[in-house]
Amino acid sequence: FLVTMASQNAPGVATMKASGYQLPVSPLMIFTGLLALLLSPFGVYSICIAAITAAICQSPDAHPDPTRRWLAAAAAGVFYLLAGWFGGSITALMVALPVSWVQMLAGLALLSTISGSLYQALTHENERDAAVIAFLVTASGLTLMGIGSAFWGLIAGGIGYAVLTRTRRPSLSG
After folding, report:
1. Which of 69, 118, 134, 160 is the most exposed place for a label (fewest CB within 10 A)?
2. So which residues are the signal peptide here (predicted)?
């Protein structure tokens, strides 16, 4: 559950909020957590707000009208089902392709999301340094105690934000 929270739910929620969507975070976390708890004995242990899927489906590339982007999420769900049914064939295809091609396809799929997220993160001057800290730690690939860089990027960015906003506050004693 903690790995899913750090690697999928937290970045997924952050991505959605950065795009202007207001999510009921607590009910979503309770629902996905309980569903994972109930279904984990059957091998369904990673029910989450998929960060990459959320990033792709919420971008303007999915649909110019934000109220119609749910269609991209529905299509993604259909493709997840197809990927489950044809997983062996898809895996064989991906293994046959050069690694650089697979990485290129993933990068192209996320290009507008990455640029939009970086723009949003770097827009506010008082939050810029913390955003850069979070980005650099996440991009570093750091793994501590078996927990990946997405989690540590959030932690480092949060600490950076707390420290930097505390040191930049104007003094009331004048």
Report:
1. 118
2. none
